[in-house]
Amino acid sequence: MDSQDNKRKWKNRDLIASLEFAMTGIFTAILEERNMRKHVVTAIAVILAGLLFQVSRIEWLFLLLSIFLVIAFELLNSAIENVVDLACNYHFSMLAKKAKDMAAGAVLLVSVFAAVTGALIFIPRIWELLFKH
């Protein structure tokens, strides 16, 4: 098999194939990555809270942005971890550690953004619900 045949084997042939590969990646992360499952459960809880508290359109935009950013960054983090492990053949490398730590740091930053966004939207509503006169 020449290199051109090998390239075709891995190249997405059409939109449907691209979508199938992407969905496979998302489902693989949900099944295999503990943190991804936590993010998905949290996302469902936030969506339910948004429905319960009837948040505004703008608030929905920020909540959905937060949810999708956290999940997208977790997917990237998981992909980076897998590639680093593959490249290092599971042997310790300071550069590998740095790459994995930086990817985890990116997830942490968007998670803090998401938490602050959720707090700004939901804390006043919860406060009002608990201490309504």
Automatic annotation (TrEMBL):
Substrate binds at E74. Keywords: ATP-binding, Cell membrane, Kinase, Lipid biosynthesis, Lipid metabolism, Magnesium, Membrane, Metal-binding, Nucleotide-binding, Phospholipid biosynthesis, Phospholipid metabolism, Transferase, Transmembrane, Transmembrane helix. Mn(2+), Zn(2+), Cd(2+) and Co(2+) support activity to lesser extents. The keyword Amino-acid biosynthesis does not apply. It is a multi-pass membrane protein. Belongs to the bacterial diacylglycerol kinase family. A divalent metal cation binds at E33, E81. This is Prokaryotic diacylglycerol kinase. It is found in: Cell membrane. CDD domains: UDPK_IM_like (cd14265). PROSITE patterns: DAGK_PROKAR. It is an enzyme of class 2 (transferase). The chain crosses the membrane at residues 36-53, 60-80, 102-123. Pfam families: DAGK_prokar. It comes from Streptococcus peroris ATCC 700780. The gene is dgkA. It comes from the Bacteria. InterPro entries: DAGK, DAGK_sf, UDPK. GO terms for molecular function: ATP binding; ATP-dependent diacylglycerol kinase activity; metal ion binding. GO terms for cellular component: plasma membrane. GO terms for biological process: phospholipid biosynthetic process. Its cofactor is Mg(2+). The active site is at E74. ATP binds at E33, E81, K100, D101. Its EC number is 2.7.1.107.
